[in-house]
């Protein structure tokens, strides 16, 4: 990569200001790349953290990038249209996607123009657990298989339940209309179903919302007040479950609570012992990793087809967090990469 004298990089939403650093060997006439970040929802904290990571990743790479975040509004049809437009009349050199529905986005490929696409959190294609690019045009996936992550959560519940018979467990998933959440639900049931002492008393949907989860878990507690564990696939929903327990007069720390996402609230809850564990995500670091692979693709450098999202976080922070792992010296200052 050749040095670009006098250019300084600073990237902001929709606008790139040139500052010191390196310019790419190829690209637009002025040495600047245009990158679209297709968010499942631009108002969602996780998606915003990914976008922030894309911006900071470009800064760290020393390339000039004009980035724009596009709001999918948690609608698969909207995001499909955005992807098709970005690859044709949008004039973008590359696209980073946080898919709302990875299988449905496969319908956009192959794209009209050969624009490299990086997908974050979920793959694009029919198999939500296959991280290798499944369609022509997707060059890299920054994620972990959702079934593997869900199975890891369930295994910890099995350990907690070892001395309880029966051990009553409630499953709290996002939406069972989503292939992603179906895969998680199936993984939970697959692991828990191997143990005769564990009884899954309910499976409810929280739609990744604290207050919908509060309502769903409150209803569950009316007939299952003696629940031993609530296994949740998202931190926002675990926060709702915690509120439901408190409203029912049940001490949250007397129930096994876990979540996934690694929000600042979740990390604090695990540190305080209110939750037993959390499967951390590192969305800002994932965004930076996606930008790195996109930059490689745009400059004809080797691209990693799969980036394990569990490995991109701060050094020494274990992705499966407990009170003990967060007390380790390398993790003691970690507070999470996003607010849910």
Overview of the structural elements:
It is a single chain. This protein is an alpha/beta fold. It folds into two domains: 9-143 and 283-309, Response regulator (Rossmann fold); 147-281 and 319-331, Response regulator (Rossmann fold), CATH 3.40.50.2300. It is 34% helix and 21% strand. A hairpin with a 2-residue loop joins strand 1 and strand 2 (15-18). Helix 4 (146-160) packs parallel to helix 5 (179-192) and helix 6 packs across helix 7 (235-247). The longest helix has 17 residues, at 45-61. The two termini are 38 Å apart. Residues 35-301 form the Periplasmic binding protein domain. Keywords: Signal. Belongs to the bacterial solute-binding protein 2 family.
Q: Which key features would you list for this structure?
A:
6-stranded parallel beta sheet; 6-stranded mixed beta sheet; Rossmann fold; alpha/beta; globular; about 35% helix; about 350 residues
Per CATH, the class of the largest domain reads Alpha Beta
Report the end-to-end length measured between terminal Cα atoms.
Answer: 38 Å
Shape category: globular
Structural class: alpha/beta
Q: How many E strands?
A: 14
CATH superfamily caption of the largest domain? Response regulator
Report the radius of gyration as a whole number of Å: 21 Å
Biggest beta sheet attributes: 6 strands, parallel
Count of structural domains: 2
Number of helices in the DSSP assignment:
10
Strand order of the largest sheet: 4-3-5-6-7-13
Strand content: 15-25%
The arrangement of helices and strands along the chain is EEEHEHEHEEHEHEHEHEHEHEEH
If you consult CATH, what is the topology of the largest domain? Answer: Rossmann fold
If you average the pLDDT, what whole number results? 91
Architecture (CATH level 2) name of the largest domain: 3-Layer(aba) Sandwich
Low-confidence segments? 1-27
Main location: other
Family: Belongs to the bacterial solute-binding protein 2 family.
Pfam families: Peripla_BP_4
InterPro entries: Peripla_BP_I, SBP_2_dom
